[in-house]
Amino acid sequence: MALKVELKPHERIIVGNCVITNTDQRARLLIDGENVPILRERDILTPETANTPAKLVYLAVQLMYISPDPQSQHGTYFNLVRDIVTAVPSAWSIIEGINNNIMSGDLYRALKDARKLIAYEDKLREQFEATHPKTEAGKTDVSTAA
Fold first, then answer.
1. pTM
2. Which one, 18, 84, 86, 112, has the greatest CB density within 10 A?
3. Helix (H), strand (E), coil (C) string for the chain
4. Hey, where are the domains in the chain?
5. Separation CA 119–CA 17 (nearest Å)
6. At what angle do helices 53-66 and 107-131 cross, to 10 degrees?
7. Confidence of residue 92 (pLDDT cuts 50, 70, 90)
8. How far apart, in whole angstroms, are the C-alpha atoms of residue 36 and residue 108?
9. Distance from the Cα of residue 29 to its chain's centroid
10. pLDDT attached to residue 146
């Protein structure tokens, strides 16, 4: 069964190892094929936008997903998740799900789980910011953190 994708004007999509950019009008595509990586623009992270540890994990999984040789990214990925688990052990259950999907070859599902890691990181950051007031200069006041 073909995948139906509707693109907004100027929206981009990755199909396989090609980036397709829509023109100035909406377009509907029917993509037929098996095991072809497809990512919509809203799901694509670039090295510039991967500015947190969880987003770097997502980027590594994304590169695995679109690569003809996913194992080439395994070293980078496993180094990143080791650092996250060391700093935030409570993230282990999410990372375990990502790992299981990578090892079983379901990289699309691993990407979805990596989104959960980003959401968890955002939640932890919000909790930290709520309990640690900022000074006038915009820096966290660590004197109240103790």
1. 0.84
2. 84
3. CCEEEEECCCCEEEECCEEEECCCCCEEEEECCCCCCEEEHHHCCCCCCCCCHHHHHHHHHHHHHHCCCHHHHHHHHHHHHHHHHHHCHHHHHHHHHHHHHHHHCCHHHHHHHHHHHHHHHHHHHHHHHHHCCECCCCCECHHHCC
4. 3-41, 45-131
5. 27
6. 170
7. very high
8. 10
9. 24
10. 45
Does the CA dihedral 134-138-142-143 come out positive or negative?
Answer: negative
Token pair listed for 43: 């799901």
Alpha carbon dihedral 121, 127, 133, 139, in 10-degree steps, equals 0
**Cα–chain center distance at 95:** 12
Structure tokens at 120: 């968890």
- % of the chain at pLDDT higher than 90: 69
